Amino acid sequence: VPPFSPTSPAHPPAPDPSLKSRVRLIAARVLASTGLARVLAPGPACASVLLYHSVAPAEIGAWIDQRNTLDADVFERQAAALAESGRVVGLDDLLRRLERGESVSNLVVITFDDGYLDNLTVAAPILDRLKLPATLYLPTGHLDRTEEQWVDRLHSMVRTATSAITDADDPRRAYGAWCARLIVADLEERERLLADAAAKLRPDLSSRPRTVMTWDEVRSLRDRFPRFGLGVHTADHLDMSSLNADAARAQIRSCIARFAGELGVAPKHFSFPYGRSTPETRDAVRAAGLASACASSPRHWIAPGTDRYWIHRHVAVASSTAFGLYSSPATGRAVERIVGLP
Ligand SMILES: [Zn+2]
After folding, report:
1. How far away, in angstroms, is 243 Cα from ligand 1 center?
2. How far does the centroid of ligand 1 lie from the alpha carbon of residue 342, in Å?
3. 249 CA distance to ligand 1 centroid (A)?
4. For residues 92 and 76, what is the distance between their CA atoms, to the nearest angstrom?
5. What is the pLDDT of residues 45-92, one digit of tens each?
6. How many angstroms is it from 314 CA to the middle of ligand 1?
7. How far apart are CA 314 and CA 110, in angstroms?
């Protein structure tokens, strides 16, 4: 039986997690479900920044890599819990408190990456009703080209494949291998790899919906939902840590210029694709006049003294137990000490 046929399961499997990360996840689940994390927490003194991507009903989410989409109902429950906690502040508010050396204890900031259309149609109305602020980071080149993220394009191709990748391939491993090459590819290589995948998979994308916003929709988001702040996420969603200095600076310059051209104001905040940054690229963001940057950091929580150009984010996940774990700065800190999550 070929790994992918017209009757394959709706969703291709995510790449196999390493044994180490599986052990960590199990340890974290035990800590969270038994309440041990709370007992072991050293006391809340830090803030968390949450990262969302797509928030969509199932029929739209099916076209998005399953790691990057959250069911709309799950998101609504998470947002309601956050609203009830009274701990959510806007990014600017958090930065102001850090600047003044004020406590950021237990605060949570909500962010979104990549400019999914459902951020306007699904997430923003929910957040607006709950009066919660959020920040959305836009990859400007993708909006210019109305181009979905490569991972979603690959996911959609695999989902609707009419032929196998190869007879011998394990589908999970094949998907993971494509992702590993695409994540570090430049634009040209990315298109070549996706064309190669399309030739092998022969996907039927005729009913695929558009999932990325247009600039008109970004303006609609800005006008209708003023609690939604907007920032930039490079132009082309490349791995900034693998680009040379000129190419990295060009990505930063380009997204600032396109954002200002379409929205009439300079962007203030930046997030690194895949969380990947280097000291040089974080300096380049600062030198370009931006006020903050999100990037993966070994220090998983935010406290006075945190570098505002190296703000770590927690990926918000579907499991409500894990969400509680990640979104609680106190428990997150304990878990970080014990198992190194997330
Ligand atoms: Zn992204």
Report:
1. 16
2. 18
3. 18
4. 23
5. 788 899 999 999 999 999 999 989 999 999 998 899 889 888 899 999
6. 13
7. 10
Q: What separation in Å is there between the alpha carbon of 34 and the centre of ligand 1?
A: 33
Residue 132 Cα to ligand 1 middle (Å): 22
Coil/strand/helix, residue 289: coil
**Given a cut of 70, is residue 331 above it in pLDDT?**
no
> In sequence order, what are the beta bridge partners of 112?
52, 136
| Residue recorded with tokens 């076209």 | 63
* pLDDT tens-place string over residues 187-215: 999 999 999 999 988 999 999 999 999 99
CA of 275 to the centre of ligand 1 (A): 8
For 108, the enclosing helix (H) or strand (E) is strand 108-113
Six-digit token string for 282 = 């974080």
Phi and psi (nearest 5°) for 230?
Answer: -120, 140
Crossing angle (nearest 10°) for helices 171-183 and 187-201: 160
pLDDT at 307: 95
273: CA distance to ligand 1 center in Å? Answer: 4
Q: Are 251 and 236 in contact (CB under 8 A)?
A: yes
- How many angstroms is it from 30 CA to the middle of ligand 1? 30
pTM across the whole model: 0.87
Token readout for 128 is 């607006």
112 CA to middle of ligand 1, Å? 9
Q: What is the mean pLDDT of residues 119-140?
A: 98
Whole-number Å distance, alpha carbon 269 to ligand 1 midpoint, is 14
Judge whether 278 and 309 are in contact, CB under 8 Å. no
Nearest alpha-carbon partner for 134 in 110, 118, 116, 113 = 110
d(CA 115, ligand 1 centre) in Å: 9
